[in-house]
Amino acid sequence: MITFISSIIILILGYVFYGKYIERVFEIYPDKETPAYSKQDNMDFVPMPAWKGWMIQLLNIAGLGPIFGAVSGALYGPVAFIWIVVGCIIAGGVHDYFSGMLSLRHGGAQFPKLVQHYLGKFIRIFTDIVSVVLMVLVAAAFVAGPAQLLSSKTPISFLVALIIIFAYFILAAILPINKIIGRIYPIFGVILIVMAVSVAVALIFSGKPIPEITVQNLHPSGIPVWPLLMVTISCGAISGFHCTQSPIISRTVKNESEGRKVFYGAMISEGIIALIWAAAGMTFFGGTKGLGSQLQSIGPAGVVDQISIQLLGPVGGVLALLGVIILPITTGDTALRSSRMIIEDFVKDKVSINSKALMIAASFAVGIPAFFLSTIDYSFLWRYVGFTNQIVATVMLWVSVSYLLRYNKAHLVAGIPALFMTGAVSVYVLYAPEGLSLPYNTALIGGAVVFIIVSILYVRAILKQTEPIASPTQDLYTS
After folding, report:
1. Rounded to an integer, what distance in angstroms lies between the CA atom of residue 114 and that of residue 101?
2. 200-221: per-residue pLDDT in tens?
3. If DSSP codes are grouped into helix, strand and coil, which group holds residue 157?
4. Does residue 261 contact residue 52 with C-beta atoms inside 8 Å?
């Protein structure tokens, strides 16, 4: 109990103090007109109040990630608390703030365009491919569950449910942001927050002992914590998917001073939600063995349903049903929207085509493969989501490092988490079944080699910064 409550307090303090420090390092310009006004088009560039931007950003980046991922990560025991708290404040919050604010600084640019500006064209091409693949996988992975639930609770068949959901995805991708997303997301956000807060309060007063802090690995299968925990719990600590979503909201921010609330604040909020569900997962079933058994038999959706109903009664059952249907859909639709924006950015200067036709074509180019992928096994899709997700997160952190080095700022705020995630991703790719599936010790050695090489390149980049650096104002709101 003490660990759980203390962790929530630390996350809040992280937003208040470390988030403010990150804002000072980045250096905001509150008097500068943002792209929401200078490029206002009543489609993507639409000024929105900060509270609505925060709510939409939270729904964009959250969905079921901080619920299903946290419940699965709870199998490792209370060490998951450490990763959520430290990862969220030091890595995830920094990642999300820089991805949102750099997008804003570059006229609402998508993530791959930022990669080209700060890391070069070759890495941009790689990032374009990985980003769109990630969007397709996320849209597919987060639609199968709701479609199955709808088909089990209503006369609608699974295929018809898929068609209905994807029809909504296409509409959400091509209509102005204030027509659908801006109107219904605040309502969905309230459901997500009420669901998490209700579970937290009920858990505290349930009398069930919430485990206290330990670094011991309690996973029933003995799967190593490093680096699998960092991939299992991604959305509650650091997630590359977030940097593909931040440009959607960067185009609506009315003032740079709102960035910390919208971007860093949404990440901290998601961390708190992940913390609540991790605590519920490792507590409710009498430990990690009981949780593991339940996950195998009824899956994460069933686990969430059981916890909600038994802690909150019939109301909890309704919240769980709404959550499992609505929350993944709110991630899938913006995944399609952001992939549409990425494809538009990539081809609009290369192909002569009407902007509306390009927008619709880009939406279907991602929607069609996502539709067919949604019919295969969810757990298979989710493994590849985790794989690509953290690669994207690592690249975004190095984009942040490049920006900070360019303007002679405190680059270690992004450099330390970038090195950490480089090591984690390298070992994971070498070790995981969806990677090279090497023996664990071999993967550790290979990951260490990659880590050392990247560290040397980082040090060389630091030593090259010998000339006076220009002010970042020269990059303000460039396209």
Report:
1. 11
2. 999 998 888 898 988 889 899 9
3. coil
4. no
Q: How many Å apart are CA 133 and CA 270, to the nearest integer?
A: 24
Outline where DSSP puts E strands in 123-262. Answer: none
Q: Examine residue 227 and say whether the peptide bond preceding it is cis (omega within 30 degrees of 0).
A: yes
Instruction: Give the separation between CA 277 and CA 96, rounded to whole angstroms.
Output: 21
pTM of the entire predicted model? 0.91
Structure-block tokens of residue 430? 């070498």
% helix / strand / coil in the chain, to the nearest 5? 75, 0, 25
Question: What is the distance between the alpha carbons of residues 406 and 199, in angstroms, rounded to a whole number?
Answer: 45
Degrees, nearest 5: CA angle 98-324-55: 35
Contacts of 457 (CB under 8 A, 6+ apart): none
Q: How far apart are CA 339 and CA 132, in angstroms?
A: 6
157-208, pLDDT tens digit by residue? Answer: 888 888 888 888 888 888 888 888 888 888 888 888 888 888 899 999 888 8
Tell me the C-alpha distance between 222 and 75, whole Å. Answer: 10
- Token pair recorded at residue 455: 């560290």
Taking Cα atoms as reference points, which of 419, 405, 411, 413 lies closest to residue 456? 419
